[in-house]
Amino acid sequence: MMRCGLVSVFLLLLTGCGGRAGSREQETNAAIARLEKRLDLLEHRLQSEGRSSNVLAASRESLPGAPVSVAGLPYSGSTSARVIMIEFSDFQCPYCRMFANSILPELKSRYIDTGQLGYVFFSMPLERIHSQALNAARTAFCADQQRTFWEVHDWFFQDPRYLEPKASAALVARLEVDQARFARCFNDNSEAAVRQRINVAQGLEVIGTPTFFFGRRLSDGTVRVTKRVRGILSVAEAESVITEVR
């Protein structure tokens, strides 16, 4: 989350300068790539020296006092899985995208598809730094109402160009859904629903993405959270937490 915020601030500083739009966009993208590479090297150096990064240290943050409801949220895995991973995510966050494309597939094959782990996606668009995140979350919410959430999830994370409203609308037109119902959902219900989820996340003291809650499913379907991790997880880190929570 810290890296995501630094990159976003750097982007705002760059785009505040003058110059032609085309060349400025190319310069901005190149600068962001250089900054992200430097931040990656710094994090790897800290980890190699045995210091706690914010990904690992965040497990010491406060945990919810009451079980967390995941009713109505997108879910992947066996309904009998006892260990649950809740990801608070933003479709425009580059580190959420990294997790979705590089880490989640491995966890899915090893733990989710084998019935050992249930995965809950909790949309938390960070509007202040990600201008397209709310629209994407609203689109994903309406897709979920017609059981096509994971298709939209994969589209958005595989290619961020789809986050642009016109591009996302074109993708929605390809879904095998009731288009009139989808339009009604998007126009009438989606923003209030997404903002209600943001409020819930903030009440749980989630302030950045990605943030992960790990816990055990209780008999009423809620989750007793026992571990909280802020920042992108490696496969090894996720496995360690899953083993501990079991």
List keywords for this structure.
alpha+beta; 2 domains; 246 residues; 5-stranded mixed sheet; 9 helices; Glutaredoxin
Question: What secondary-structure arrangement, pairings included, does this model have?
Answer:
Elements: H1 2-15, H2 21-48, H3 54-57, E1 75-76, E2 83-89, H4 94-112, E3 117-123, H5 133-145, H6 149-158, H7 165-172, H8 179-203, E4 211-217, E5 223-230, H9 235-245
Structure described in brief:
The protein is an alpha+beta fold and 246 residues long.
Task: Describe the 3D structure.
The protein is α+β, with helices and mostly antiparallel strands and 246 residues long. It has 2 domains: 2-48, no CATH class; 59-245, Glutaredoxin (3-Layer(aba) Sandwich), CATH 3.40.30.10. It is globular, with a radius of gyration of 18 Å. Helices cover 54% and strands 13% of the residues. Mean pLDDT is 84; it is low at 7-22 and 43-60. α5 packs across α8. 33% of the residues are buried. It starts with a helix and ends with a helix. It has a 5-stranded mixed beta sheet, with helices on both faces.
Count of individual domains: 2
Helix content: 40-55%
Which structural class should the secondary elements be placed in?
alpha+beta
* Average pLDDT for all residues: 84
DSSP E strands, number: 5
Distance, first to last CA: 27 Å
Low-confidence regions: 7-22, 43-60
What is the architecture of the largest domain at the second tier of CATH? 3-Layer(aba) Sandwich
- Helix count, DSSP H or I runs of 4 or more residues: 9
Strand content: 5-15%
CATH topology of the largest domain: Glutaredoxin
Largest sheet: 5 strands, mixed
Radius of gyration: 18 Å
Across the major sheet, the strand order is 1-3-2-4-5
Give, in order, the helices and strands. HHHEEHEHHHHEEH
- CATH H-level homologous superfamily name of the largest domain: Glutaredoxin
Report the top-level CATH class of the largest domain.
Answer: Alpha Beta
What sort of overall outline do the alpha carbons produce when their principal axes are compared? globular
